[in-house]
Write a structure and sequence with these properties.
The complex is a heterodimer of chains A (76) and B (529).
Chain A: H1 2-11, H2 31-45, H3 56-59, H4 62-75
Helix pairs in contact in A: 1-2
Chain B: H1 6-21, H2 27-42, H3 46-77, H4 84-132, H5 149-165, H6 174-182, H7 184-187, H8 195-203, H9 210-243, H10 251-281, H11 299-305, H12 308-323, H13 326-339, H14 341-344, H15 347-364, H16 368-397, H17 404-421, H18 423-426, H19 430-442, H20 461-481, H21 486-491, H22 495-512
Classes of the chains: A mainly alpha (76), B mainly alpha (529).
Amino acid sequence: MEQLLEILSDLHPEVDFETEDHLIDDKILDSFDIISIISEIAEQYDVTISAEHIIPENFNSAEALYDLIERLEDEE
Amino acid sequence: MLFTSYSFMGFLLVLFCLYYIIPAKHQWKLLLLASYIFYFLAKPIYLIYILVTTVSTWFAGIQIDKVQNTQKAYLAEHKADLDKETKKQYKASMKKKTWHWLLACLLFNLGILAVVKYTNFTISNINSLVQLFGGKPLSFINIIVPLGISFYTFQAMGYIIDVYRGTSKAQTNPFRFALFVSFFPQLVQGPISRYGDLHESLFAEHSFDGKNVAFGLQRILWGYFKKMVIADRMLIGVNTLIQNPDRYSGAYAFAGMLFYALELYADFTGGIDITIGVAQVLGVKVTENFNRPYFSKNIKEYWNRWHITMGSWFTDYIFYPISVCKPMLKLSKHSRSLLGESIGKRVPIYLSSFIVWFTTGIWHGASWNFIVWGLGNWVVIMVSQELEPLYAKFHNRFAVKDKFGFRLFQVIRTILLMSSLRMFDCYRDVPLTFRMFGSIFTKFNWNVLWDGSLLNIGLSALDYGILSAGVVLLTTVSLVQRTGSVREKIHKKPYWLRAAVWYGLFLCVLLMGAYGIGYDASQFIYNQF
């Protein structure tokens, strides 16, 4: 989780990713941010997040994103 | 049948009455019938195209659904006796099957769109090359471009991708699916609805709700006001200016650019108001397509607020799949090691955006004007993205971010930027557009803006008065909207005030609509896309 928080904070240092849970709904992350995050995750976790996983529920909070990574790690 | 025609109004009146008379369980069937009549009246042959797209997409959806259900049942049955690797292999093989159906459906339907919309454009480009080498040019083909094909094809393709991704359940009833594809209010100019957003209210049983119907009718009236009082009036001036570029350059081109920005806004948002209003009278909830776009502070924000459903379609179904596909992730890795972390990681994003904006351009029309317009947007977005650190430094140093004056500057800058890019919509080719844009800065004839010359472009002083009042009204409504629905606010006022507002608006449309001798109720701009 810490590794993920670091990826997110590098992108938006002004956001408290531990508590924020409307990252997509409140337009804090845009489509460019999402792609940057996915490519970082691919690099650091060796997990591929495909387009079908890019839905608000998976990206609204760091926790939801971490759950997705774990789910995908489990599947792969 | 244009939205602004008497026949359309008569059509709506009959439909609205029947809709609430017949048993509610048959309402969606009536909507399907009405949609097909609407499309048939546009041109009977159009029906063949929409039927082919409907049947092929519905069929592919069913096949994908079948494979997904088989997979679910198999995995549930063999939960205990399958190891992780076997399960993974099984899932991959099933995914491949659904992928084949998806691919076939996309290729077939986007192929139809490409053939009807882009064949002659391709031939014209081949001919330009052939003529360079002295060859014999190919002849153009006579092909019909069905009304709204870009909209209904994208809506249907969005559906099949959603079914493939598992975000929407396949519609088993072909007639219900046919209604989703052909729902007449949004058939010709969008919004491009998602199945998940539309299907519930589209197929639900609706009882008559006076407030909802009144709000729908008010929205339709507001749409007519925008279209007939503002857009169609502005169109007269815009046409004079852009069709005579030799005569109207310099400050005239600048005026034309701003006039077109107003015309397009009133035309497109007016059309969408009519669409959403008609749907609301029927109890159907259609996604909003605009969110006060001319109040955007930068171009990226603008594209989140203008033609929202198209933008999100391109993001979800083109930008994301391209950006996160394996070759792109490989490219990301490669470019990082080659160009360094900060530039390298932006390469795939910029490349995907380029593809998206090229597609957005060509989706709007088969011409280089639209392609250059799309790529122009891409360049501006990329430059703004690159300049973001500089903006951040500026804002750290100067605390102007929340100052009204600075926000106003940002809004005006965005309007001017978007309007100048839209000049590609106006002039007949790309070189002429560049020439006209250049003339704004080189031909010093700014006096034409105030010496009465603009009264000779088909618009009288009264027209300008009406247009100015219209702009004030549009701006006021947009400002009021920031704190909630304008109609809700009016609804809470005393009866006499409500009646004055809506009868007043009705009279405006009736008396100030751009009719007149020789005037032909004009097509909505987005109908051609």
